Structure to design on (624 residues):
């Protein structure tokens, strides 16, 4: 910081105050330390951003160069053979994520409504809030273990073990805390006057919530939900032993299904180049989908503030 | 003009029974949906406890201290995996905390134009959105081959230390630690940035006013004021690192042989689950459930501690 001191009109010399001491001199040890710390912080920021650029670069270049119409629509080849595509995995990711959303969004929004509209500080609401935070911290692989124990090993659905349904439910467990938290926080931001106004002109609690409060909070809720879906679409750990994998087109909701994330995992550790290439291609599709969802959520979020 | 009976004006509209029913029904439904969180948590706990019950009865606490994992003899001890989980996540934290906090300072200070800082912040947030399986793929094919000469040099020069005593042969603990750093860096950066931004500007102005330099203010005033939020974020990141599965599974080598060396292949609880759960049956499933229980308790303790720290300390200035 350099200050230029306006020439004092009088008696400068008599105060014994040398103006030179106010000038910025980079040679001072404290200024040298400052410059050093700034350089270190800049270096750290560079280190933090570098992996993103490298990963994105590799995925976009290596995966993007492989993308073709056939790759997006064909089935993966048997191990060791060339060609084929990831069509079933793209479809599978969409199906499983859809199942997860259909379960997690109603439950999560309903839970969020309870927390924000019916009981803000009761013991049950506090318990649910605490539980939501705990559930958000449960490792994703544990969600898989849970669904495996509950659904897959007990063959709960029509005697089927591994199934798209089980995978979707495991992802729903993962999404649930995100949806509850966003709904709770979005509804809290709705001005209290809107609720009073609605109740005051004779609307019931139900009508107030569904016609006034929820629409007012729609954008932030949608933002959070889109982010939750994007995160679920990329999750692998809960799917490995619930949805499993399948080299064929999805048959039903109650049979094993291929997903892009599990395909990347399975094909990355195979010793065949064709499979490794498909893993890169699937990474490209997955990353583009997820980044698009993130940017979309950001764009939505802009409306919330306006 | 019809004359209105004045008493009608004050007659309250009776709420129809149907409306009351809908109102009550909606309330009950929302209570039910909210309680699903509790049910799911309880379900997770019961499923894992129920599954682990057999192995718990057979091994007790010996499971945590023994390092033999032998599916053929049905003898299980998870020490290697527990050690791997703790070592990889703690070491990753040691690298990621200075990087993350430094980055957060860099993007909250006005050292560079705002748009560059916003772009850096956005990039770090997008890094958090990249699926861990994609990071694992990148780690296998790009990062690990690039790192291997460096790790070999490390082995050659510091091989007398037990931590670098084996020759790196591809997958191992060290690349797993580095990919974990990449994964938890966005969390630490985002939370540190939020905490730094919440520090009231008056503190900084006062520090400048008494004649400190920029970094004097950052290190002596702003960081201490934000330290509670940052600590909470670091604990959350630790919980995330311990539970992280895919990237680690793909790069750690999945070996159950215990080795102190960071260059040797190792194992974490979550990578063991990811690798063996699908193919296990009988008693092995029970042992894996026991390992899952240990992981759950570890992350639970860390997360509850993180929440406690955040709630206890972070509202100092709001």
């Amino acid at each position: 910081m350099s200050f230029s001191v306006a020439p004092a009109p009088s008696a400068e010399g008599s105060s014994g105050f040398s103006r030179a001491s106010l000038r910025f001199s980079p040679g001072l040890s404290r200024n040298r330390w400052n410059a050093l710390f700034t350089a270190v912080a800049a270096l750290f920021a560079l280190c933090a951003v570098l992996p993103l650029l490298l990963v994105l670069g590799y995925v976009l270049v290596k995966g993007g160069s492989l993308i073709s119409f056939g790759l997006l629509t064909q089935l993966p080849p048997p191990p060791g053979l060339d060609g084929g595509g990831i069509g079933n995995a793209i479809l599978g990711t969409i199906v499983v994520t859809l199942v997860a959303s259909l379960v997690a969004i109603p439950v999560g929004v309903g839970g969020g409504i309870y927390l924000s509209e019916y009981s803000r500080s009761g013991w049950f609401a506090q318990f649910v809030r605490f539980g939501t935070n705990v559930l958000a911290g449960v490792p994703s692989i544990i969600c898989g273990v849970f669904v495996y124990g509950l659904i897959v090993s007990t063959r709960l659905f029509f005697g089927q073990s591994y199934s798209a349904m089980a995978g979707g439910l495991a992802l729903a467990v993962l999404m649930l805390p995100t949806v509850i938290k966003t709904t709770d926080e979005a509804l809290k931001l709705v001005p209290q006057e809107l609720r009073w106004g609605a109740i005051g002109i004779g609307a019931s609690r139900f009508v107030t919530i569904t016609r006034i409060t929820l629409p007012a909070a729609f954008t932030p809720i949608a933002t959070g939900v889109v982010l939750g879906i994007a995160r679920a679409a990329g999750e692998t750990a809960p799917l490995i032993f619930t949805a499993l994998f399948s080299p064929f087109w999805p048959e039903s909701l109650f049979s094993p299904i291929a997903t892009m994330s599990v395909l990347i995992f399975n094909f990355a550790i195979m010793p065949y180049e064709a499979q490794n290439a498909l893993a890169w291609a699937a990474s490209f599709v997955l990353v583009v989908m997820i980044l698009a969802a993130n940017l979309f959520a950001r764009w939505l979020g802009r409306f919330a503030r306006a | 003009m019809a004359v209105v009976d004045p008493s009608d004006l004050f007659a309250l509209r009776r709420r129809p029974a149907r409306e009351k029913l809908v109102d009550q029904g909606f309330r009950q439904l929302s209570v039910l949906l909210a309680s699903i969180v509790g049910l799911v948590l309880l379900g997770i706990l019961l499923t894992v406890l129920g599954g682990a019950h057999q192995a718990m009865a057979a091994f007790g606490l010996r499971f945590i201290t023994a390092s033999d994992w032998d599916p053929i003899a049905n003898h299980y001890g998870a020490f290697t995996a527990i050690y791997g989980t703790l070592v990889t996540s703690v070491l990753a934290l040691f690298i990621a905390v200075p990087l993350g906090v430094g980055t957060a300072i860099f993007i909250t200070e006005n050292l560079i134009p705002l748009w560059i800082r916003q772009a850096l912040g956005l990039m770090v947030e997008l890094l958090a959105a990249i699926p861990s399986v994609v990071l694992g793929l990148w780690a296998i094919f790009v990062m690990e081959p690039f790192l291997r000469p460096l790790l070999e040099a490390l082995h050659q020069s510091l091989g007398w230390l037990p931590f670098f005593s084996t020759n790196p042969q591809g997958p191992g603990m060290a690349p797993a630690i580095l990919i974990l750093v990449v994964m938890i860096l966005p969390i630490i950066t985002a939370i540190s940035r939020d905490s730094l931004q919440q520090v009231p500007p008056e503190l900084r102005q006062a520090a400048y006013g008494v004649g400190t330099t920029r970094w004097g203010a950052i290190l002596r005033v702003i960081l201490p004021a934000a330290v509670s939020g940052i600590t909470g974020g670091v604990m959350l990141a630790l919980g995330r690192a311990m539970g992280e599965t895919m990237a680690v599974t793909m790069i750690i080598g999945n070996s159950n042989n215990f080795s102190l060396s960071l260059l040797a292949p190792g194992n974490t609880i979550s990578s063991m689950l990811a690798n063996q759960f699908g193919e296990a049956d009988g008693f092995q499933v029970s042992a894996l459930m026991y390992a899952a229980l240990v992981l759950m308790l570890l992350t639970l303790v860390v997360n509850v501690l993180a929440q406690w720290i955040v709630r206890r300390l972070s509202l100092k200035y709001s």
